[in-house]
Amino acid sequence: MASEGAQDDRIAKIASKIRVIPNFPKPGVMFQDITTLLLDPMAFKDTVDLFVERYKDKGISVVAGIEARGFIFGPPVALGIGAKFVPMRKPKKLPGKVISQEYSLEYGTDIMEMHVDAVDAGERAIIMDDLIATGGTLTAAIMLLERVGVHVVECACVIELPELKGRDRLGDRPLFVLVKSV
Fold it and tell me: Among residues of the chain, what percentage have pLDDT more than 90?
């Protein structure tokens, strides 16, 4: 694992806590397992703190977290910067009225949803997930928020798999990551 950006001892510690599991969930995949990061309270805190430090004075009012691991990092970051947390979920998981966005996967399509009353036009948001691979889910979240007039300031992930070029799918939207896989 290698870090992006400034030299910070916390990033090296975070990277060292991410376990790589070969051939999971299928042959050829090198799964980036964050559960080992979550088992270390200081490394987990450092992860959250790095995001809070980046976004605390940026006027962010929405932290949108992508199901499911965006739900792990998004809420503590939202609390740390004084923003609301908005879950971006798979279909039929949210009660009440939702807005949906279909998006392409490597094989087929999927749908992401959020409550229609979760955000207001003009709000400033970051979108959080644990990892960016191909960029499909982050792109869907951007499209969903922008459709209702939210300004997506940046996408934020703990890990990036640069060889899958997900960053390229985000267009001109910035992406901040703590750790790049090697």
Answer: 87
Residue 149 has which token pair? Answer: 């007039």
**Do 112 and 101 form a contact (C-beta atoms < 8 A)?**
yes
Q: Catalytic amino acids? A: 69, 106
β-bridge partners, 67 = none
How far out from the chain centre does Cα 135 lie? 10
User: How do residues 124-142 score in pLDDT, each as one tens digit?
Assistant: 999 999 999 999 999 999 9
CB 90 within 8 A of CB 111: yes
Q: How many CB atoms lie within 10 A of CB 68?
A: 12
Cβ burial 122-152 (10 Å sphere, 16+ → b, else e): ebbbbbbbbbbbbbbbbbbbbebbeeeebeb
Rounded to whole angstroms, the Cα distance separating 120 from 148 reads: 7
10 Å Cβ neighbour count for 93?
Answer: 10
